[in-house]
């Protein structure tokens, strides 16, 4: 097709049309000449061959189809979008339906619907629709032919609705893989960044499936899997010190949660967002997310974790009464549990994890003795678990050390910290290094710490200088998205 000239005025088109009409040229010949001379595509060329505006053509389409009781609600804008499809700019086109193409064929007086299609149209139309159009002519808009067309359209849609790009077995495998990654992240033998890469690939596979076609319940299940994976990516991003990236992953997880309408995923996603806000210093946001998650009546232990997170943020703000009240709600939620967690691993709050939060909260509100008892209880509980979450275990040891410091026992604090200081750099996650920073700061205000305190501060500083987040910052190239 030749390119359209720079100037193709209405006067030029009218002059051509009038000349050809005076010569007795058929309308089809005029349309072909308009295409050849001005570079229009077929539907636009046929309209100009009649000398109609888009609004005039739309009015005729409405009138003709209304006479048959099947009015197509076309206007000038819609006619223009039909004409530009499929080569126009994004948002400026609309694929004409089969009834629309047949209505245009009838309106413009074409001999066949194919008069209105060019190569680009045929490349873009579904094969089933092309085959149907090739069998039709304008006279077939009435009677038995119209009934047959309607049946063919319904069958074509039914075949599309029946098809799915994901099977039930595939969904089970995706869910199982998500559960495995959430569990492996707590394993002391795992590497957080290796698991991040695996989770990212799994997320991409789920998103590719969601871009295809599946049954509504399958799409909902895919959104659940995608939401949990994004929540896991958010958690890991936060643990390695990339809070902005964690927030972005959390937003996507929340979108998946809303689209899936899954209450448990909504609660866990808000727990992840609360964690990100807490370590970003946005304590009011952390409380808001935790309280928002608690409003979802979800099964499992999300309600326990959310209450613990709320207590953690209140204690950081120095709000003792609110912090202790939230800890009490966590205990009540634990007693009320009837079902387990869908995913487990990171997305579960066991009794040891709850006790670890309680120890940190009691420390901040001045209850060193309560903190030490909670930390000792957490240590006992976690020792009975088949997989000891190394991040939680490290924070329990830090709480024990802080409690010893608060009661004037710097030597006991150093002994309690030995398992933490022995962590390999790739397991020195941001929450652990931040808790150690709090501990180090408290040493500066502690009387009588002496040489033991100086040595402890030096050990903590060396630990923080070779942490997972610092190594990641110094080694660019890992995409956290």
**What is the name of the CATH class of the domain at 168-349?**
Mainly Alpha
- Number of helices in the DSSP assignment: 24
Which runs of at least 5 residues are low in confidence (pLDDT < 50)? 1-7, 137-142
Order of helices and strands: HHHHHHHHHHHHHHHHHHHHHHHH
Quote the distance from N terminus to C terminus. Answer: 44 Å
The profile of the biggest β sheet is: none
What's a quick, concise take on this entry?
It contains 24 helices and no strands.
Structural summary, described in words:
The protein is mainly alpha-helical. Helix 4 packs across helix 5 (76-84), helix 12 (216-239) packs antiparallel against helix 13 and helix 16 runs antiparallel to helix 17. It has 24 helices and no strands. Among the domains are: 10-162, no CATH class; 168-349, Serine Threonine Protein Phosphatase 5, Tetratricopeptide repeat (Alpha Horseshoe), CATH 1.25.40.10.
What's the layout of helices and strands?
Layout: H1 10-22, H2 27-38, H3 42-50, H4 54-67, H5 76-84, H6 98-108, H7 119-124, H8 127-134, H9 143-162, H10 168-184, H11 192-210, H12 216-239, H13 243-260, H14 263-279, H15 283-294, H16 302-316, H17 320-335, H18 351-364, H19 368-383, H20 390-406, H21 410-421, H22 430-443, H23 450-465, H24 468-474
Summary tags:
mainly alpha, Serine Threonine Protein Phosphatase 5, Tetratricopeptide repeat, disordered N terminus
């Amino acid at each position: 097709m030749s390119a359209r000239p720079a100037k193709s005025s209405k006067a030029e088109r009218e002059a051509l049309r009038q000349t050809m009409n005076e010569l007795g040229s058929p309308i089809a010949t005029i349309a072909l000449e308009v295409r050849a001379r001005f570079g229009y595509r077929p539907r636009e060329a046929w309209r100009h061959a009649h000398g109609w505006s888009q609004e005039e053509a739309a009015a005729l389409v409405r009138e003709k189809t209304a006479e048959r009781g099947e009015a197509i609600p076309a206007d000038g804008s819609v006619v223009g979008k039909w004409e530009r499809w499929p080569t126009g700019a994004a948002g400026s086109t609309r694929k004409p339906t089969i009834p629309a193409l047949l209505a245009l064929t009838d309106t413009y007086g074409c001999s066949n619907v194919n008069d209105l299609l060019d190569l680009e149209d045929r490349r873009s139309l579904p094969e089933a629709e092309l085959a149907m159009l090739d069998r039709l002519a304008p006279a077939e808009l009435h009677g038995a032919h119209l009934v047959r067309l309607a049946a063919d359209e319904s069958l074509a849609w039914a075949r599309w609705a029946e098809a799915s790009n994901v099977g039930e077995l595939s969904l089970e495998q995706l869910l199982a893989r998500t559960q495995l990654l959430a569990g492996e992240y707590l394993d002391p033998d795992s590497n957080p960044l290796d698991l991040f890469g695996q989770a990212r690939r799994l997320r991409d596979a789920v998103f590719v499936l969601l871009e295809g076609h599946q049954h509504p319940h399958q799409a909902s299940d895919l959104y659940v899997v995608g939401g949990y994976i994004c929540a896991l990516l958010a958690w890991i991003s936060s643990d390695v010190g990339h809070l902005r990236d964690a927030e972005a992953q959390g937003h996507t997880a929340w979108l998946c949660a809303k689209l899936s309408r899954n209450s448990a995923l909504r609660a866990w996603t808000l727990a992840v967002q609360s964690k990100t806000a807490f370590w970003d210093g946005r304590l009011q946001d952390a409380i808001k997310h935790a309280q928002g998650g608690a409003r979802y009546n979800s099964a499992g232990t999300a309600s326990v974790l959310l209450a613990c997170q709320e207590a953690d943020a209140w204690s950081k703000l120095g709000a003792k009464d609110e912090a202790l009240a939230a800890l009490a709600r966590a205990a009540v939620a634990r007693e009320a549990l009837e079902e387990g967690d869908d995913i487990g691993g990171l997305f579960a709050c066991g009794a040891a994890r709850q006790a670890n939060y309680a120890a940190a909260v009691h420390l901040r509100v001045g209850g060193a003795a309560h903190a030490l008892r909670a930390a000792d209880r957490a240590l006992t509980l976690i020792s009975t678990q088949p997989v000891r979450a190394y991040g939680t275990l490290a924070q329990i040891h830090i709480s024990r050390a802080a409690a010893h410091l608060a009661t004037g026992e710097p030597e006991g604090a150093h002994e309690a910290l030995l398992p933490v200081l022995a962590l390999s750099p790739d397991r020195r996650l941001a929450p652990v290094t931040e808790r150690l920073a709090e501990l180090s700061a408290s040493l500066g205000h502690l009387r009588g710490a002496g040489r033991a305190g100086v040595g402890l501060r030096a050990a903590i500083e060396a630990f923080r200088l070779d942490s997972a987040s610092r190594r990641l910052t110094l080694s660019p190239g890992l995409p956290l998205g």
